Every structure is written in structure tokens, then in C-alpha cells.
Amino acid sequence: MTDSALTFCVPMRGVIQRFCALVVLGAFYFSVAHPAHAQQSAAEPAQIRYDNTAHTFRMDAADVSYIVGVNESGTLQMLYWGKRLRPADPFPEAHANGGSSAFDLPVNATPQEFTGWGGGLYVVPDLKITFPDGNRDLVLHYVSHAIQLNTLTITLKDISRDVFVDLLYEIDPETGVLARSARIRNHTKERFTIEQLFAGTWNLPGADKYQLRYLTGRWAGEWNLQQQAMHPGKVVFESRRGSTGVEVNPWFAIERGSQSDQDDGDVWFGALGWSGSWQIDIEQDWANRVRVTGGFDPFDFSYVLAPDQSLQTPKFYGGYSNKGIGGASRLLHRFELDSIVPVAPHRRLRPVLYNSWEATGFDVNEAGQEALAEKAASIGVERFVMDDGWFGERKDDHAGLGDWYVNAHKFPHGLKPLIDKVHSLGMDFGLWVEPEMVNPDSELYRNHPDWVLNFPGRPRTEGRHQLVLNLAREDVRAYVYGFLDKLLTENDIAFLKWDYNRNWSEPGWPAAPLDEQKEVYIKYVQNLYGILAELRAKHPNVEIESCSGGGARVDLGIMHLTDEVWPSDNTDPFDRLSIQDGFSYAYPPGLMMAWVTDSPNWMNNRSTSLDYRFLSSMQGSLGIGANLNKWTPEDFANAKRLVGEYKAVRATVQDGALYRLISPLGGSEYSATESVARDGHEAVVFAFLHSSQQGNAFPDLYLRGLEPDSVYILHEHVGKLQDSTVQRASGDYWMHHGVTVSLRGDFQAAFFTLEKEGAQ
Ligand code: GLA
Fold it and tell me: Residues near ligand 1 with C-beta < 6 Å?
């Protein structure tokens, strides 16, 4: 323990936004050096302080304070998490809460930061261990701490055994988002078995009412926002599927009170950075105390820790906003864009891409792809991606996965002629891969039937005619890394669409020692991350998209190693509005690939105009997935204009602050979003009408996030605004008088921008 209070200030990032154009193979990209875009308190530096009198740790950053303290029994507990307090405000002292009766021991009522299962704990433990002598009691007390820049490590130890837990807290200076993880160290003389391990517990401040939001989905119907009042009891979100999964995403938001407003109210939110089986438990007790725990899924879990070994959990991120769920998602977007995705903070804006999957399916070949590439280039596409079907004996989804050599019938001269052609058209080249899978009908499986997840003597359940390679095995890891490295070394490839099209079954690892076989859940993901990290290091210009039969592998773990994600195979532009809206609660529009595809759409036979399809996709990272061979000259001209307009606003859409003006939730007839540029120079608005009913007028749009006194000039790009005579007015005018959009009919859309006068 230190003798005096320690203070470490974290330097804020530069405040000047800078765009630099990079010329890559004739295509233009922009890298953005981000300003300090903290929502509040930009002037106050982030800091972590320790008060040795109160035995309290206080973390302050952006507009958030997080305070924990050690109580009289040595337990670490949460004291405050919420809006940033004044520097001179008192450091509270920690005291264990008393239990209310003999049935309710104090350990359950005290908001512990990290709970070991022992000493009468009934709430969800963060750590449960079975020792070789049969003892299963674990009580963790504070032993030491260290503060380094924006990181605080607090070490706990069991009261009698040499089991140490380092609690790692990292606070983001720009957003106040905390990253928490726990490292378990075995300094006993024997192996012990970890049966449950979470990153830590988020304790929420008291309230009599809370609302919970989370995201659920299924294939082609991802990202449904669920909202419900919370009651005493436990809600469990998990994936037992071996990967993140789509049924529920590892993200939550809890709002205090029962009235929800997009941009007002106290919201606590969190997201788990793990792409394997996971669990988040949200418990509310009889006194309305809320605890959120999350980490490795305890189902079918065990991990043997040998003496002097350690195991670290995934990071569980948590944040707070007093600007409602809208403010919470803006903070999270900022954090994800600046601190999670690779090469942050000098991230590249997403190029406009073309992908032929919906146009050609598996039927790819050199001439067909080259013809599409020429057409794509003519409308301003910057990246041409060839999807499934180019390798092995891949005619359909029954064969070929695992055999990562170029199919000689489809590409007799290899990939080089196509790649050269794409480059000559001024685009870079991307390729689809599904590295973790194998079809039983493949050379790889015939040679290595033991390389898949399996239980000996049991059926191997196929999904999409494929099995999952056991990436936990070092030989499989070496094979997967090897073929990807070779592919990227031998070909000038700028982008991989990394797919993953089924969940696990029979998750056996027969080659591992018996008591280590369940470690497959962790070692698989560690090796996946390892491969991605190594590939990125060796091929730093290659970008990667995480795709999983749509949006089934989107989380902050995979996002740390990839550049964008595919949110859904559903490309119907109307369905996409709610899919994209749901996605935006947890993840930024700039990382969300959105294609313009054919009409009628393959999913639902719905017909929509090209303008409508473009505007829906322009809410995210624009791509084209239509069969360009069927387009008319008017389609090409229109698409070229809209691609150009998208490029002009993409920095704002991909990198700005998102305001949901009208949510498409609940089957609303209308929806509208607004993105405000980081430097405030413009706002970009998209509005959509599903279908006019009973002559109802489109609701006026009251813009948000503008500077009240600045003057903005309105530019109409698509769709009519009613009062086109007013084109120049103050931020206050646009925010309070609003804009009247005159959309009528079915599947209509409008796109307009407001440019701040005098902005560069
Ligand atoms: C998945 C993806 C699609 C496409 C196919 C190819 O379903 O989500 O976009 O790449 O695989 O087989």
C-alpha cells in the first residue's frame, strides 16, 4: 500500500481533425486522426487516484467517475459509478452492507467487484474453483495495487491459499469507458480446476426502476432491440455455440427510471470482448440492487491451472452516459472506432466495395468477374471482392471447404489475371475465405479426419454440409495460418471477407489430456485471435471483414482484429433499416457493411427503387452487391451519382455522431437518422417512408447535435423537402423549427445535408 495519494493524468489526444488522402492503387482512402471528442469535460484530464486514508480508488475520465474501495473486512466493493464528480468531492469509505436476516449474508448484499464462490455467496460468482483436496471455498481479499497511466491493477488473494486474482481496470480518457478483466494466478503447489470465470461484476447504483435493453436475432433477422422493465430475478444471456452467436449479442444497456428518451437519462452499458461461448448474467435482488457479470460461458466449462500458470478473462467493457441511450451508443461508437478496431486511431474510412455473391453465387470465373469488375469501376467502386466459389472443388456448399487452392477450371491462370484487371481499373482486390471450416467432401478432411471437433464414436453433425476444424490443435492452427499467409504473400490481396457459417456440435478434443479437453472453448478462440494478429502483423495493409452467415460473430473481441463486419445476409433495404438501427445501439455504422442489391429482393420479393436501396445502404459502409449485368444505363448513371455523393459524406456517416431521429422499431411507418461530423462541419440526414397511410404527413424532423448559434445551409440530395425556400438558418432553427419532409407513397426516401457556414 502506498503512503500518499497518487495521481496520474492521462494526456488527451489532439484536438485537431486531420484528413489525409492516401492513394492506394488509384483508389482514394482517408485516414482520420481523431480529435478529443469526449462528450463533456474535455478540459479535465483523466486520472486515477488512490486515497490511502479511505482506502479508496477513484477513476475519472471524460464525464465518468468510477470509485471502488476496500472495506473493513478486506473486500473490494463498488462505491460509485456515474456522472463525473468534482475533484474536491469527498472520497467515500467502503463498508460492507449488513444482511437483512440470517438467510441473507452480508457478502451477497455488498456490491463486490469480483466474487469468489465461498463464504456463503449466493449471487453469481466471478470465480469458482475446485481444489484437488475437494475444497471449493474461495474468499478473496485485497492485497496490493498498482497505478500506471490509465490502468489500475488491484490484486486480491484467497484468505488461506495462494490463489491471486489481478483485477485490471483501464479507463479510456476520451469516453470514460472502462475495460475490465481478471487474471487468475496459481501460486499453490498443485493444479486446480477453474469451473467458472467471469471478468468481474458491474454493480449499478441504486434505483427503484430500471429498464434493460439487449439485442436478439436469427439468421437474416439480426439486431432486434429488446426493451423491458427489470424486476428482481436473474436474466441470463449466453452463447453455448462456440462463437459469439446471433441469438443474443454480448451487449446490454440499463437505464435508470421508467421513461426512456433517446438523448436524456442515465444509462449504464457494457459489452464483452469475446468471440467464443460467453455468458452475461444480470441479477436484481430484493433490494433492487443490480449486478452484471460476464465472461467465459460456465456451461460445459473447466480449465485446469497448473502451479505458476495464469489465465486471463476477456475484457468486459462498461460505460455510462447521462445523455440517454443515444448518448450511450455515441460514446460506445467513439470508443470502438478510436480504441477497439485495429490501427486505431488512424483508422481508414471504409472504401465503397462491390461483391458478386448475390449476382453469381458460387458460379465465379475469370471472365464473369472481370466483366463485373469493369462495371463496378464505372460507378466509382474502390474495392472489388470475389465471394465464395473460387477454390477447391467448390461448385456449391457441399464440397471444397478446406482446400484452399485456386479452382483451375474457373481460374486456369490463377487469380493473378483477375487481380491485375481489378487493379488496372483503379480498385483493390478482396477475397472470401472461411478458414475454420471443412466439408467432409474435401481433400483436407480425407487426409485429416481427426482435425475436426468430435467425440470418438459419435456422429459428426454437419451444418451447411460442413464441420468445424479444431483450431485449438496446434497442427490445425499452423495449417490455417499457413494457407492464409501463402494466399496473401502470393497474391496482391487487400481484403479478406472472413466467414464462419455454422455453430459447434460435439465439441470434443480427443487428442488433449482428459482433464484439459474442455479448454477447447478458450484455446480455439485464443488461436483464432492469434492467427488474425499474426496475419495483420505480417500483412499490415490487408483489411478483414468478420462475417458469420450474416452478423453472428460481432463482438469487441473480433472487432479488435478486424476492420468491418457484415451485419446480416438480409439485404432487403426496408428490413435493413431496423437491422441497422438495432446494430447501431452497440456498434458504429461506419463498421457495418451495407450492400445495394437487386430489386425485387431475393429474401421477400419486395421491389424498391435504386434511390431507396442506396439511401438505406448509405446509412452504413456502402457496398454494391447487385447483378450489374442487369442494370440499365440509367441505373449506372444514378448509381455513379449516389456513390459520388456517398463519398462526399462518408466521413460524417462512418465517423460522426449518430442521432436516431425516428426509430424504425416496432414497425414504424417512418424512420430517420442524422449523423453529425466530428468537427461539426455538417450533418447528414436520411429519412424513409414505408408506406403512406390515410394521407398522414411525414413527421417533421427536429435535428440534434448542431451548434445553436452557427448558421447551416440545407442541401437537398434525394427527395423533396416541403419548405425549400428556407435554406439558411441557425442550428437552433433546424433543431427546434425542424425540417418538413414531403415523402408520400411506398418505400420513399430522402437524403439531405446541412453544411455549417464558414466551415472548411
Ligand atoms: C455466408 C455469407 C454470405 C456469403 C456466403 C457464401 O452466408 O454471409 O454473404 O458470403 O456465406 O457462401
Answer: 357, 387-388, 432, 499, 501, 547, 549-550, 566, 569
pLDDT of residue 372: 98
The most confident of 4-18, 19-33, 420-434, by mean pLDDT: 420-434
Mutation probe of ligand 1 site: the residue of 395, 499, 544 with most atoms within 8 A of C-beta: 499
User: 510 alpha carbon to ligand 1 midpoint, in Å?
Assistant: 30
358: enclosing H helix or E strand: helix 357-360
Environment class of residue 492 by beta-carbon count within 10 Å: exposed (0-12), middle (13-18) or buried (19+)? Answer: middle
What is the percent of the chain with per-residue pLDDT over 90, rounded to a whole number? 88
**Residue of 364, 387, 464 to test ligand 1 pocket, by largest number of atoms within 8 Å of CB:** 387
For the question of residue 598 being annotated catalytic, the response is no
pLDDT at 340 over 50: yes
Centre of ligand 1 to C-alpha 571, Å, is: 12
DSSP conformational letter for 463: B
H or E stretch covering 157 = strand 151-158
**Distance from residue 549's CA to the centre of ligand 1 (Å):** 6
Q: What is the pLDDT of residue 723?
A: 64
Burial of 254 (0-12, 13-18, 19+ CB in 10 A): buried
Listing DSSP states for 539-595 in one string gives STT-EEEE-BTTBSS-SHHHHTT-SEE---S---HHHHHHHHHHHHHHS-GGGBEEE
- What is the residue with the minimal CA distance to atom 11 of ligand 1? 549
CB under 8 Å to 760, separation ≥6 — which residues? 681
Over residues 195-214, the pLDDT tens digits come to 999 999 999 988 889 999 99
The span from the CA of 210 to the CA of 257, in Å, is 5
Distance 539 CA to ligand 1 centre (A): 24
Query: Residue holding cell 449516389?
Result: 642
Band (pLDDT 50/70/90 cuts) for residue 36 is very low
Angle (CA) 392 393 398, round 5°? 115
CA of 388 to the centre of ligand 1 (A): 7
The catalytic residue among 569, 572, 581, 679 is 569
Residue nearest to atom 9 of ligand 1 (CA): 569
Single out the residue of 226, 231, 251, 248 nearest to residue 239, CA to CA.
Answer: 248
Pocket test for ligand 1, best of 496, 498, 501, 571 (most atoms within 8 A of CB): 501
**What is the rounded CA–CA span in Å between residue 361 and residue 369?**
12
Q: Whose CA is nearest to atom 2 of ligand 1?
A: 549
Q: Which residues partner with 752 through β-bridges?
A: 685, 716
pLDDT band at 570 (very low <50, low <70, confident <90, very high): very high
User: How far is 600 from 747, CA to CA, in rounded Å?
Assistant: 13
Determine the angle formed by the axes of helices 366-378 and 416-424, rounding to 10 degrees: 10
Nearest-CA residue for atom 8 of ligand 1 = 549
Is 499 labeled as catalytic in the residue annotation? Answer: yes
500 CA from centroid of ligand 1 (Å): 9
Q: Which residue stretches of 410-519 are H helix?
A: 416-424, 443-447, 474-490
Report how far apart the first and last C-alpha atoms of the chain are (Å, whole number): 52
Asked whether residue 382 carries a pLDDT value surpassing 50, the answer given is: yes
Distance from C-alpha of 267 to C-alpha of 320, rounded to nearest angstrom: 6
On the question of pLDDT at 14 being above 90, the answer is no
Instruction: Judge whether residue 114 has pLDDT over 60.
Output: yes
pLDDT value of residue 43: 57
Position 46 pLDDT exceeds 50: yes
Average pLDDT over residues 506-525: 98
With cut-offs at 50, 70 and 90, classify the pLDDT of residue 735: very high
pLDDT value at position 103?
84
Instruction: Assign 3-class secondary structure to 72-116.
Output: CCCCEEEEEEEECCCCCCCCCCCCCCCCCECCECHHHHCCECCCE
